[in-house]
Amino acid sequence: MLRSSFILFIYLIGTCTTSIAQSGKMWTKYESSLNKLIVHYHDTVVETHYFKGDKKIKTKLNKFYYWYAAKEIKRTQGSFDGLLLHGTYKKFTHDKDLIQSGNFYFGLKNGEWISWNQDGIIISKEHWKKGILNGKVHEYYNNGQLKSVIYYYKNSIKKTKSFDESGKKIK
Fold first, then answer.
1. How far apart are CA 88 and CA 134, in angstroms?
2. pLDDT digits over 113-140, tens only?
3. Are 73 and 46 in contact (CB under 8 A)?
4. What is the pLDDT of residues 31-52, one digit of tens each?
5. How far is Cα 62 from Cα 155, in angstroms, rounded to an integer?
6. Which of 1, 12, 48, 61 could in theory staple to 89 by disulfide, Cβ–Cβ 3.0 to 4.6 A?
7. In terms of Cα–Cα distance, which of 139, 141, 133, 138 is closest to 157?
């Protein structure tokens, strides 16, 4: 009896360790009535929504699509094969500190996306339009001081302004 319990214990530890090591995740929770996913990674938790419907999604090769399958959020150019992210997206540390926030529109980044460091200081702010960087991208130093402003139009950089850590414009 003791030997069979020990063998079962070793098997369970090996199985759990293998699944965590292979997937890099702890677990995923579905809230199907809300079309919501909660994906637990080792160092972060992602709360997002997905598209659930009959609409045929026509993809474009020049855009990156975000989707969920096999216990993780994936990103591929020009296609997807799983639950397409659609709606709010928030990434937290396990201490519930917000480190990224944005929205998806049928798998494409859309609207304002903001990222924070572990101290809660903004490190970047981006503007997307259906998967295309369009507008200003602000980058910040770890002290919160503006580092650069990059102006995008349809994924192409049109103008850049850079600043030193004291806020002085770099020519």
1. 19
2. 999 998 999 999 999 999 999 999 999 9
3. yes
4. 666 899 999 999 999 999 999 9
5. 10
6. 48
7. 133
